[in-house]
Predict the structure.
Amino acid sequence: MNLSFSEEDLKFQDEVRSFIAENYPADIKNKMDNGIPVSKDDIQTWQRILSKKGWFAVNWPEEYGGTGWSITQKHIFQNELADANTPTLVPFGVSMCGPVVYTFGTQEQKDRFLPGIINNDVWWCQGYSEPGSGSDLASLKTKAVKDGDHYIVNGTKTWTTMAQHADWIFCLVRTETTDIKQQGISFLLIDMKTPGVEVKPIITIDGSHEVNMVYLDNVKVPVENLIGEEGAGWNIAKFLLAHERTGIGGIPALKREIRRLREITSELPLGEGFLKDDELFMDKLNKLEIDLLAAEYSELRTLAAMSKGGHPGPESSILKIKGTDLQQGLSDLFVEALGYYAHPFMSEDDLISNEGRIGPDFAANVMPHYLNYRKVSIYGGSNEIQRNVIAKAVLGI
Amino acid sequence: MDFSLSEEQLLLKDSITTFVDKDYLFDVRQKNIKTELGFSSDFWKTFADLGWLGMPFSEADGGYNGGPIDLMVIMESLGRGLVVEPYIPNVVLAGGLVSRLGSEEQKKELLPKIISGEIQMSVAFSEPQSRFDLNDVITSAKKEGDSYILDGYKSVVMNGPSSNNTIVVARTSGNQLDKEGLSLFIVDPSLKGVSLRNYSNVDGSKASEITLENVSTPASSLLGNEGDAFSALEEVIDLATLAISAEAVGIMEKMNEITLEYTKTREQFGETLSSFQALQHRMVDTFMAYEQTKSLLLMCAAKLTDKSDDAKKAVSALKYQVGIAAKHVGEESVQLHGGMGVTDETNIGHYFKRLTTIRAIFGNTDYHLKRYSAL
């Protein structure tokens, strides 16, 4: 057992740190540090910078443009990205569609879709959930009926994150109605510009536009956009659920955020002193920090097991539950730290107006973040579904 | 980054697991804890023969040069078997202090006998008012000629009843809460003025209340330099905290297994308990509590091995987490057993009792959260 970084690892850490310091655009950094929402352009700019360096599709096999890094190096890389408060990489192309295409796709499909993902020219979104299919994903009803060399797709997808920016959507569709609902599902790639695709925003309780409804009305999709066999979609969905999910806990970002909160406790006045003098508040902060440490080492254990050929199956469910508990817990502590100043609602215009903000500078996005983060225990398989997965796969019940 | 155990550590784990599964049977344990000694001297001999008692000592002292990770492996496996034999008081606490502070003569006199299992030792560090603060010591020692005169009271001394050599923490100078001025004495319990009130703890282990009244102990019984014991004592208690945390992790792992097995066989409403989702989710939560604690255990063992700057902080993070998880896993295991969980004949309740005492040993969650915050 040896948990310390080698000389080589430390050198790698320096390399990553200086690359970020030299290449992270100041205007994007300014937005991130001041709680101003970043645009699609900002994210794309940053992802292209990483891509040009060969550091974007970190987890892909080297033959498709991956890095070939060790587990420790990947861990260091994620930590450094989070430390520097860079925009979260959008997972739909690089972490979801890409791995499906290189694992299940034909050579032709790989040649067609992978370059757009790795170069950030094509943006993807995920068409899984439907109005009638939330946790019970396999009950999905969107139909794809074969008509010559096309599928005709009809149905509605919901909670589609970033659909308003996406060029393509990967969808689970029903190609056959069978007794067992997991059968007859297929994995289909659809160009968002195809006639019959319509996107309508869903505004969430924090006032933001992240998610959408996607209506599919007689959408004509060429059969060559089917990934894998017809009817094999559920297996691909399961593969995706277990694939690259160790990052779902968001541990590196949590480490940065908790450090920030600790700084804030020395800045926020309380009586004649500062918030850090409030023992009850500091207790909560310290407890959360210990929980985070446990989650971090749980993630490292999983990564280490994977590097020896293990499978990140049910462990990713544990990380999802613990990570999202922590994300919600920390977002709540930020709200508590602010007291009344968590309440003013600041629009995007307010954030950059000359009048200045109301309350402490960082206050503006604290409550929206808390509200927005109610989602994390719901999406990606709700935490109750994750418990079902662990009960079945780990406890054998 | 590598979490795996070495070949030797795997063998060690295997050897203890085999012993626990084959020889350390529940009803044998229950009989042993009801004897006056409170444990099996035959088993203790086995521990010595298999080299477990010599693990943490240097080769020069007759040991095997084991580190914190070896200690973790031993205690996790002993925990799974609910082993009551006093490994921590003898090997980790007393052995740890003697090997760190002892003169050549003291080491030669005591360490081979600890390793061979010939003697029993204990460390009397707590007092009624001190709770978990190692520096809070009223018991006094005053030098008089070639002797020290000890006066005071030591509480809940683990393995006190069997101990032939009790290391007493006493104050040779300073005020009650000072870290400076603490000294250690290896006291023969048969000395005039030493009186013991011996008893069993709820977890089956034995302990003593020790009164020291005008006890004259020879100056040669001083262990280490006068007034300078605190840092070694703290270091040894930190290592013992890792050890008892490992024991707790072993216990929790075992309790989760026992409980899961029980719910798979027990039927109500025509179905096994394990088929009820309300219970499944609770078992997932106790499983996660175990996993989270195990992660911090590994982290802490590695940091103690590396002598990291933040090793003390890691110890407190670990023991805090152990306290939280022990309460959660312990209480849930009993609840999921229904009425059987509260009977004396079922093993789960005995695991629960040990897990419950561990919550306080070497500091409870409040103590370690405060220490974590202050470090």
Summary: The domain at 245-393 of chain A is CATH 1.20.140.10 (Butyryl-CoA Dehydrogenase, subunit A; domain 3). The first strand of chain A starts at residue 124 and ends at 127. Chain A touches chain B through 38 residues (CB under 8 Å). Chain A has a mean pLDDT of 93.
